[in-house]
Amino acid sequence: MLITQRAVTDTVYGSEERAAINALRLVSLDIEARYGQLLREKIATVRSSRAQLESHGNTVESTLNSFAALAKTGVIDRAAAQRLALDWINELHGSDNIQVMVYDRSLRVLAHPQAGFRGISLNLLRDMKGRAIAEDMYRGSGVPLFGVYPWPSATNGEIDTHFGYFRRFAAWDWVFVVGSEAGTVERTVAAKRKEIVTALGETLNRLTLARSGFSFVFADNGDMVVSPPDRASALLNGRDAATGQPLRELLKQAAEDTTGVTHVSFRPEGTGGEDWELYATYVKPLKWYVAGAVPRSDLMSPGRALLRQQGLVFLAMLGVAMLLAWLYASRLIRPLKLLTRYARELPDRDLTVAHQVPKAVAELPTRYRDEVGRLATTLLYMEQQLRGNVARLMSETSARERIESELSIARDIQLGLLPIRLVPEVTERVDLFATMTAAKEVGGDLYDYFMLGDGRMCFVIGDVSGKGVPAAMFMAITRTLVRAAARDESSAGDLMSAINDRLAEHNPNMMFVTLFIGILDLDSGALQYANAGHPPLWLLHEGKVTLLTGRSGPACGVVEDIPYAEFDCHLAPGTLLVGYTDGVTEADSTDGSFYGDDRALRLLESLPHDSSSQTAAEALHADVVHFANGAEQADDITLIVVRRHPSETLS
C-alpha cells in the first residue's frame, strides 16, 4: 500500500507540476504576445508620424525655395523675401497638431505660429538621447534628422514630448523644424499596457493550480502587478526557513538563473508554517515574474486518501481472504492473460487509425476495483497517450516540412534579389563575376553591382552578423539601402555614411554588417572605395597579390553619425580585384584547420595572367570546397571579382 501511495503521489505530483509549469508557460507566452503586438502598433504609429512630418517638411522646403527664388531673380530683395517667408511660417497652422518653426545659426527661433516662442534660444534643447539636436544641424553634414525632445505647452506651460523633423535650408542658412506632440503615442501605449495587466489579472483570478494553488505576477522592483488572493499575503511577506531569503527574492534568483519555468520549495519561518511548492518564470521584455504557488498538502492528499481506502479494504478482506483465495487467484489470472494478449498485440497496430477496444478489455477497469483494474486503466491510458503522441509527432513532422518549404521559398526570394548581368556596353570594358553559397537555407552575405548616373560602376560586398533568416532580412535591407542611397550620394565615403545612419537608426537587436563599396571609372580605371570593417580585398597583378588597404570606419549599423573615410587607387587593365567574406578564409576542414589567407593568395598567384573573373572565382571556390573535404559549411561563402579588360581587348 505504501508503494502504491508513493506511486500515486509521484504521479499526481508530477501531473500537477506539469500542469502548473504549462499554465505559467502559457501565461508568459500570452504576455509576450500581447507586448509584442503593443510594440508593433507603437512602431507603426511612429513610422506613420515620420512619414507625415517628412511630407510636411517637403512642402515647407518647397515654399521656402519659392521665396528664395523671388530674391534670386531680383523680384524682391533677400531681406524682404525672408520676412515674407517668416510671416508665412508664423501664420501657418498645420493640421493634426503639427507646427513649424525656423531658427538660424545663432539657435534663435525666427518664426513660430505661437508668438510666445519667437525669439527664444534653442541652445539648451536636447533630444531624449542627450544630443544637442538643434546645434547638430549646423555641426553635422546637414542630413535631415528625426528627434524626440521636450517642448513647453503653449496653454499650460507644462513640458510635453514632441516628435520633430529637423531639416536645413541651405539657401538662407536656416533650419526648419516640423514637429507634433508625441505624448499621444505614449498615452496609447500606457493604456494598452494597462489593458494587458487587467486581462492578465482576470485570467489569473480564474486559474487554480491543483486544489487551492494560485498565481500572481510581480515586477523586477518587487511591486505587485497582479496580486494573489488575500489569504496569501502572509506567504508573500514571509522568509524561507532554510535560507532566510524573502519569497520574492528567492523566486527572482531562481527564475533569472534558469530559462523557462523553474521550481522552488518554500517553508515559511516560524512554527506551524505550511510547505509550498512554487514555480516561476521571467518575462524579460516587461521585467515581470510570473509565479504560481501550490500547497504541498494538495499534492500529497490523493496518495493519503488512497492509503486510507486501501487500509479499510484490506481489513475487511482479511477475515475472508483464506476462504476466497482460490477463487480470487483464478479470477486474477484470467484478466491478466487478457491484458497480456492485448498488450502484445499493441505494437502491431496502426496507432494513427482509431481502434475499437475489445469489450472484455474495456470493461476491466469497471469490473475489477483492484490492481487488475488499475493495470487495465493504466494500459488503456498508455495506449491513448501513445496515440496522442503519434498524432503530435505526425503534426510536428508536417509542420517541420512546411517550415523547410518556406525556407526554400525564402532562399529563392533571396537569390532573386541578386543583381542581373551587366549590359554589353559595360561588359566590353569590365569583366565582373560574383557568387554566393549560403551555409543555411538563407544567408547573411551580400553582393551587388550597378551603374551610377554618372556612368561609373558601383560594386558592393558585405557580411551580416549572425546566420539564417534574421541575417537574410538584414542583408535585404542593406542591399535596398545601398541602391537607395546611391541615388543621392556619388562618393563611396558619403554613401557608406548614409547606409550606416539608416541601419543604426532602428536596430534594437544591434545587428551589423561589414561592407566594402567600390566605385570604378570604367574608362580611366580610377577606383574610389570605402571599407567598413570588411576584410581587405586582394589585387592580383602580374602574378603578385597585394592588399587593398585602408579602413574607413567600423561596421555599419552600430553607431549613427560616423563619417567614413574614402580612398582612391588605380585599377590597371588586366588586374584582378577579388572581394570575399570570411566564409572563405575561415572555412574549416574535417581536421579542424582553417583555410586561411596564405592558401588563398597562393591559389590566386598560381592562376594564368589572362584568367577571367569567373575563372578566378570558380578556382578559389573549388579550392575551398576541396580543402573542407566534406566538412559542414559553417559560414556563407561569397566572392566578387572585377577585372578591367586590357586595352587590346577594348580595341
From TrEMBL:
GO terms for biological process: signal transduction. One of its GO terms (cellular component) is plasma membrane. PROSITE patterns: PPM_2. This is SpoIIE family protein phosphatase. It comes from Pigmentiphaga aceris. Keywords: Cell membrane, Hydrolase, Membrane, Transmembrane, Transmembrane helix. It is a multi-pass membrane protein. The lineage of its organism: Bacteria, Pseudomonadati, Pseudomonadota, Betaproteobacteria, Burkholderiales. The chain crosses the membrane at residues 311-329. Signal peptide: none annotated. Residues 429-644 form the PPM-type phosphatase domain. One of its GO terms (molecular function) is phosphatase activity. It comes from the Bacteria.
